[in-house]
Specification:
single chain; 332 residues; alpha/beta; 6-stranded mixed β-sheet; 5-stranded parallel β-sheet; 22% helix; elongated
């Protein structure tokens, strides 16, 4: 079934275009017609400015539970981590589902239509697998479905607490014991209409260098996204250099201990925070700002040639990116 929308103003490529008709079939944009001065018969009319759905490429859904706790008083990354662990210790598949559904619903209302969920809370506290070894991941997939958002479940390998150190008692539920065991469990997860299964390496300290290739090969064989916390905490970088030596410019991904240059980023500003979102059949979504809002792109120098190509801004749909260098100093 095809649904037509008439957009009073639409963001196309690099500019705002008035009078645009949009066809959506089975949740996918199939046609964009410019110079459509009046709404076609039967079209749903979207006033204001309509933007493509946004993608949240890196989410930790359970961190929503930290609201109002880690922002109070002073502290360090390490005190933040202890509070985060205390919440992770109490998660069950049911509570994780309820928490994630609220998170994804908030994303959908803000115009985010696709999320990359960096998922590493796999097992029961203490590390014993659930009867369904992917019960926690399935809870996230179900939550996204109920919230009406597409998800790339970035199932995360987590083997060690630090370089040559076993997981601590909090981290036991994150770990499968080895990259091979992680691959065996992750292989039980399957793509579905609204969900894609990807792979992630938690960090350079949480997956030993000799096991990185196992995760990369798993992703390559399935043509799945591969995601990583590459350089998120200075203490982690120092420990990596102590374990593997100072990085060289020609270092391979299994030995490098430094992050690449941050790619260009897009920011948006608005004179008004008022926005409206519509959910369409098949999870196509559109969001509009009032017409007195302005949107501006801030460019950074282009990434080096070794960086993955960035998607064209004219793409009608968005999917989570396959790599991330997180700005916050969080070693979680």
């Amino acid at each position: 079934m095809t649904q037509t929308y008439w957009l009073e103003h639409a963001w196309l490529d690099t500019h705002v275009e008035p009078g645009v008709a949009l066809d959506v079939t089975d949740g996918r944009i199939t046609a964009v017609r410019e110079n459509t001065a009046t709404p076609p018969p039967g079209a749903e009319i979207l006033r204001g400015l309509t933007l493509p759905g946004l993608a949240n490429a890196h989410s930790h859904a359970f961190h929503r539970a930290l609201r109002g706790t880690v922002q109070v008083g002073s502290g360090t990354f390490w005190t933040w981590r202890e509070i985060m662990y205390s919440f992770a210790d109490r998660l069950t598949p049911d509570t994780y589902h309820a928490l994630a559904r609220a998170v994804y619903a908030e994303m959908a209302l803000a115009g985010v239509t696709a999320v990359g969920e960096f998922h590493y809370v796999h097992h029961t506290p203490g590390g014993t697998p659930y009867a369904d070894p992917n019960a926690m991941g399935e809870a996230l997939v179900a939550a996204a479905d109920e919230a009406g958002i597409r998800i790339t479940l970035l199932d995360t390998a987590y083997v060690s607490s630090g370089f040559g150190q076993p997981p601590n008692h909090h981290q036991l539920r994150f770990s499968d014991g080895s990259a091979e065991a992680w691959a065996e469990r992750s292989s039980l997860l399957k793509d579905r209409e609204h969900a894609r299964i990807g792979a992630a390496i938690h960090s350079v300290r949480a997956v030993p260098a000799g096991q990185l290739a196992t995760v990369a090969r798993w992703a390559e064989e399935r043509q799945a996204p591969l995601h990583v916390h590459l350089s998120e905490q200075t203490a982690e970088n120092d420990a990596c250099q102590a374990a593997h030596g100072a990085p060289r410019r020609d270092s391979s991904p299994t030995t490098a201990c430094s992050a690449p240059a941050r790619p260009a980023s897009t920011t948006r500003t608005s004179r008004t925070r008022t926005s409206r979102c519509w959910a369409t059949p098949g999870r196509a979504r559109a969001c509009a700002r009032r017409r007195n809002g302005t949107w501006r792109t801030a460019s950074a120098p282009p990434p080096p040639s070794s960086e993955p190509a960035r998607p064209s801004p004219s793409a009608p749909t968005a999917t989570p990116s396959s790599t991330s260098s997180k700005r916050p100093a969080r070693w979680s």
